[in-house]
Write a structure and sequence with these properties.
This protein is an all-alpha fold and 100 residues long. α3 packs across α5.
Length: 100
């Protein structure tokens, strides 16, 4: 697949995600596209990121999420990037929780 086509396809996919109206629609959308194992893998990475930001140790995260050390390390590196969108999203969610 050429680069232009791939970029258009990615844009279309992310526009579709942004068009979802609520959590229920989002769950249904991803259940239509992903296997339960794929969804669980995404959710595990997300939970690992949350726990890393909370200052939990690799050992605790590994025991409680069943994540491999290499995955925890990779997620940690992602959070440390200067413009980490994962960090930005988690911080927004944290701010949302404080206001509710």
């Amino acid at each position: 697949m050429n680069t232009e086509k791939r970029i258009r396809d990615q844009e279309q996919f992310f526009k579709a995600v942004l068009s979802l109206k609520n959590v229920e629609e989002t769950v249904d959308f991803f259940e239509d596209l992903c296997s339960m194992k794929e969804l669980e893998a995404f959710i595990q990475r997300f939970v690992v990121a949350e726990r890393l930001l909370q200052g939990e140790t690799y050992e605790t995260i590994q025991l409680e999420t069943n994540a491999r050390t290499s995955l925890i390390f990779r997620v940690k590196k992602s959070l440390e990037r200067e413009n980490s969108c994962l960090r930005k999203v988690l911080e927004r969610l944290g701010e949302e929780e404080v206001h509710h």
